[in-house]
Amino acid sequence: MATSHRKETRRKASVLQCFFFFVLGALAMAASMAALHASSSASSSVWRCSPLADDDPSSSQVVDGGGEWGVVRTRGAQFVVGDDGRPFYVNGFNTYWLMVLAVDASTRGKVTEVFRQAAAVGLTVCRTWAFNDGGWRALQKSPSVYDEDVFKALDFVVSEARKHGIRLILPLTNNWDDYGGKAQYVRWAQAAGADVNLTAGGDAFFSDKTARGYFRRHVTAGGGGGRRHVTAVLTRVNTYTGVAYRDDPTIMAWELMNEPRCFSDPTGDTLQAWIREMAFHVKSVDPAHLLGVGSEGFYGRSSSPARLQANPNAGAALVGTDFVRNHRVLGVDFASVHVYPDNWLPAGATQEAQLRFATSWVEAHIADAEGALGGMPVLFAEFGVSAKAGAVFNATSRNAFIEAVYGAMLRSTRRGGGGAGALLWQVFPEDTEYMDDGYAVVLPRAPATAGIVAAHSRRLQAFNSRCEWSCRWGCNRQRNTPEMTKEADVV
């Protein structure tokens, strides 16, 4: 009995010791995770994980944070989600033609397939067109006249994205002739008697009153009233979910235009006035969602000589845009940049030169978003290089370019910086290669690329999750130790 009693006493003591060390370990883990807010730099700025002042309790969580689906917002130079304003770093992709494929029942499944494959490697945001102006399978067949079947296809895209935990960025028209774009609006204005022409490639879209009015009515149900406008994009009620687009947190952001340029006015004044007008118009109807310009990030005539040196070529300063000026407009919530060294650099640029440019281009825009723009998230909404036969890169060496962009983004992420995310151009489901522009990545057929994408997703998710966990302890930003920075690289 005495021996059994001693054994029982030792057993109980052992249990208490285990519990004691478990508690100590948990407290140490909490302290370590709290410190993960900090960057690997020597910055000592404070970053409080406190709620946004105007947070809506109904949109408090996000799927990848383990809770409800909520609207993405900005705080300073970051995207945030949740009542406590947790950082939301983005690893995303472009598949611009989803709406068109969803129209036909025989190809609709490809929408589900690409979302499923993207989600499997941790991609959380998709950028896809919310327009097709005139022409084949047009969403907007003529000003404010829509094809309901095509609108239902866009409804399906939004609904399927939500099912797979993927948010959407939706540009509202195109600078280019593909899918109609600004030139189609000018043609419609001509047909209505406006004194405009297409000699400047559709640039009259930015200044002509009739064309601008058509775009405003396409965006919202306002600006003209009447029953024929009830299907305008922002006020559209999704036939699958019953939720109006402007109320749907699946939509992360709107973009005014894909890659706006105004060659006819290299001063940038014409495009700047259009951005101001349309940003105000969109926000007057949908103040909840984020709004971007959709620009490529070129520095224009209003930029300093030092900034102009960052451009890929001299002509980039003459397309009527300016990265800093365009993103200082009231109502614009984040900066957008594209990265195409193979298209932009002079012919003959080597792989090494293109990789150097990509890294410096990303870093320059992160610095300007944090500095000149007063602390604004910057999203690299398209990045890619062609792997067509004869191109500088092929499907294997392209991985070095993807890793270069991801590396620059991760360096910003580690310090809580303004590099808010990057979206690969572009991800294709299988058996759609007939639409390949040379940039397509079919994830199941590119395991090395898929592995790189998945690894980057895990790194970003580690930061998102650690920030979420530590925010619940009311932590402040502290200086990271080298060990913490190294730990973030382990996935």
Q: Would you mind describing this structure in some detail?
A:
The protein is of the alpha/beta class and 491 residues long. It folds into two domains: 1-35; 65-488, Alpha-Beta Barrel (TIM Barrel). 38% of the residues lie in helices and 11% in strands. It is built from 14 helices and 13 strands. It has helices at 2-35, 98-103, 109-120, 148-163, 181-191, 209-219, 269-285, 305-308, 323-326, 341-344, 351-370, 398-414, 447-471, 482-488, and strands spanning 73-75, 78-81, 86-87, 90-94, 125-127, 140-142, 145-146, 167-171, 251-255, 290-292, 335-339, 378-383, 419-425. The strands form three sheets. An eight-stranded parallel β-sheet has the order 10-9-8-5-4-13-12-11. The chain has a three-stranded antiparallel β-sheet with strand order 1-2-3. A hairpin with a 4-residue loop joins strand 2 and strand 3. The longest helix is centred in the N-terminal third of the chain and has 34 residues, at 2-35. The protein is globular, with a radius of gyration of 24 Å. The N and C termini lie far apart (52 Å). Residues 1-67, 222-230 and 471-491 have low confidence and may be disordered. Keywords: Glycosidase, Hydrolase. Residues 72-425 form the Glycoside hydrolase family domain. InterPro entries: GH, Glyco_hydro_5, MAN-like. It comes from Oryza brachyantha (malo sina). It catalyses: Random hydrolysis of (1->4)-beta-D-mannosidic linkages in mannans, galactomannans and glucomannans.
